[in-house]
Amino acid sequence: MSSDTTIPELVHVVDDDAEVRDSLSRLLRSVGMQVACYPSVAEFMRAPRPEVCSCLLLDVRLQGASGLDLQDQLNQEGVALPVIFMTGFGDIPMTVRAMKGGAVDFLSKPFREQDLLDAIQQALARDRVRRERGRSHAELEARYRTLSPRERQVMGLAVRGLMNKQIAGEVGTSEITVKIHRGNAMRKMEAKTFADLVRMAEALAPERQA
Length: 210
What we know:
alpha/beta; single chain; 5-stranded parallel beta sheet; disordered N terminus
């Protein structure tokens, strides 16, 4: 898979009108974005999606499955791809459904190019933040996996507020040994302060704090 640093930000476009796809593709490429166009929901779902900062520009009314159906499917599958809807036949219930489903924007055709570009930048910014948080959490998980079972146990008890003497009694070891395990946990987790360690523990899944 390619990384965010080697491929331009990618905009997926799903619209069954070839002229619209071509027009949007030209516009987005003119401002330096990578574009992937699809004539239907089925084509989009079959295509590979590179792991790069992305968003989905989606027509509401399509032949076959609708844009709203695709949004529902992505949500059900846990695919966190920011969606911008566009339509020439929008109504309030449709807009409400789209926004409740997490859409970034709902643009009525014809729309101004700048409005579209602004919506895309907002969607890409949302995806960029999500990906950065995912990377940070993955790095945190990787550091946590370097801890021994006893270091994890001591860390979990320490961040719950127990003193070293209390932890020693809890795990059946000496206070000196607890201090060593606690220090090892701080070093391996790359926590500069105990407050950092507490924040890291809170960011990890609850079952990993014990």
